């Protein structure tokens, strides 16, 4: 963060301000619902990173863990690194002060908002052997490619948007364990019969498609889609520049690119025409597409497995999830919403590719076609491991699987 001589000396009242904010946030967090990742994290690790898009619940996850785990809440502290106090106080000095006063668990939010954060975390890890650190950051962070290697020191996790399964638990309707992909393909009839006997699943599925991907929909109410649209803008305006060195004109081109795609999703890009409309090169156009994919605003479907080090032209471009699609698109097509839901619910756990026939190839083996109740096997008939994911069905039969059940995987 620059020359330490520019910083104000650490005083107790400054730390008390941080502690007061932490206590206030902790007091207001509920333990009633926890994201699935909470139970998958190895909380014993000394350095834990949690990546994810804005609004998916990373901050709540940290606070819930503190509240549930630490009987003495003042052995731990939560600090958002976009706090204005850190504009005039060096993070190293803050950590040293807290450490010598008994704080041995530190939870840092929004690390990408603090300059040279990777160096700081490395130094904390190396210089305080009994200090445990958990941090959250933008899904855009390229941890393994940063100039300071954290990969051998940390356990890294990604928090996607809420699944349909999590949404049902969040609204208090149904609590069921995640299912495996094998269960989904082989036992979907018995699973769906059990669930549909307990709730009107299709009504809830429709609600989820509209507003159920982000936990903040409860407090946002009717302003949810407006706020979600603003978040997408904020990611481009603030998160992108905080993660990489980028010009104002490039930011404006990224916004224009998003507008073009939002009007046409699923978008089958003609890269040459797209480059011309953005007045940029092919390489820059691909970089912008992959940047928005890393930011969890877009989802790119490619023939080969996606590789952020080798950027290939995508076959289709989707918005990341159905809620974003409704927020950014004036009149979303139902078929496009179905495909967007399917891709979103599988992309965090499985490898997705564009097949020669059908809509999606999963893990290089399973072929899926997405559609409504009257969708047939015409396009993928006689192909091995081929399935239909059908909207509007409560229960399926054989290789016709209800679309909603793909939201039960995490």
- What is the string of SSEs from the N terminus onward? HEHEHEHEEHHHHHHHHEEHHEEEEE
Widest beta sheet: strand line-up: 2-3-4-1-5
Average pLDDT across residues? 92
Number of helices: 14
Q: What would you say about this model in short?
A:
By secondary structure, the protein is of the alpha/beta class. The protein is built from 14 helices and twelve strands.
Write the layout of secondary structure elements.
Elements: H1 12-27, E1 47-52, H2 58-69, E2 76-80, H3 91-100, E3 105-109, H4 117-127, E4 132-138, E5 155-159, H5 164-170, H6 181-196, H7 201-211, H8 217-220, H9 224-243, H10 248-262, H11 271-278, H12 282-294, E6 298-301, E7 316-319, H13 322-328, H14 334-347, E8 352-353, E9 360-362, E10 366-371, E11 386-390, E12 400-402
Task: Explain this structure.
The strands form 3 sheets. Strands 2-3-4-1-5 form a 5-stranded parallel β-sheet, sandwiched between helices. A 5-stranded mixed β-sheet has the order 8-9-10-11-12, with helices on one face. Strands 6-7 form a two-stranded antiparallel sheet. Helix 9 packs across helix 13 and helix 11 packs across helix 12. The N terminus is likely disordered. The chain is globular and about 70 Å long. Helix 4 links the parallel strand 3 and strand 4. The chain is built from 14 helices and 12 strands. The protein is 40% helix and 13% strand. By secondary structure, it is of the alpha/beta class.
